[in-house]
Amino acid sequence: MQSNDMSSVHSLVTGTVSITNTQAHSSWVPVAVLFTFDEPVTATLTVTRTTGDTSFQLATVDLADNQSAAWIPEAPYIFNLNDVLTVTSTAINGTVEIIRKAN
Predict the structure, then answer these.
(1) Distance in angstroms (rounded) separating the CA atoms of residues 26 and 32
(2) pLDDT tens digits, one per residue of 11-37
(3) Dist CA 2 CA 86 (whole Å)
(4) Helices and strands per DSSP (H, E), number in the chain
(5) Distances (CA, A) of 36 to 3, 49, 91
(6) What dihedral do alpha carbons 94, 12, 59, 101 form, nearest 10°?
(7) pLDDT tens, residue by residue, 64-76
(8) Most buried among 14, 37, 52, 83, using CB within 10 Å?
(9) CATH number listed for the domain at residues 5-102
(10) How far is 56 from 93, CA to CA, in rounded Å?
(11) E strands, the chain, in order
């Protein structure tokens, strides 16, 4: 059985991570966005989608003295060619894992 899952881990050292769909004939949906920090943090985490010149906020998570968080979409947000998934964090001492699957 072949898996269509895609996963990537990124440092939050700059506070922002973006993934762009560069494939003309395929699309994907985020399955989960997982945050892990080196120590407990108080922070705001935001997930947005940009299509053309329009950005949509998909989720905001506020952490209070936590070391991890997860966003699991309640609906399938389809990312087509040139759509961008952006994750921002006010805490920068951690990583974000973005798990996607082919649509």
Answers:
(1) 19
(2) 999 999 999 999 999 999 999 999 999
(3) 28
(4) 0, 6
(5) 25, 21, 10
(6) -90
(7) 999 999 999 999 9
(8) 37
(9) 2.60.120.230
(10) 26
(11) 5-11, 16-20, 28-51, 54-71, 84-89, 94-102
Categorize the per-residue pLDDT at 1 as very low, low, confident or very high, splitting at 50, 70 and 90. very low
How many whole angstroms from its chain centre is CA 66?
A: 18
Q: Which residue has the tokens 């506070």?
A: 15
Measured between alpha carbons, how far is 46 from 26 in angstroms, rounded to an integer? Answer: 25
- In the structure encoding, which two tokens stand for residue 28, read together? 């994907």
Reading the block at residue 49, the tokens are: 């989608």
Residue with token string 């894992």: 97
Tokens of 8: 């990537």
Nearest CA-CA partner of 85 in 59, 62, 67: 59
How many residues appear in the chain? Answer: 103
**Residue matched to tokens 């440092």:** 11
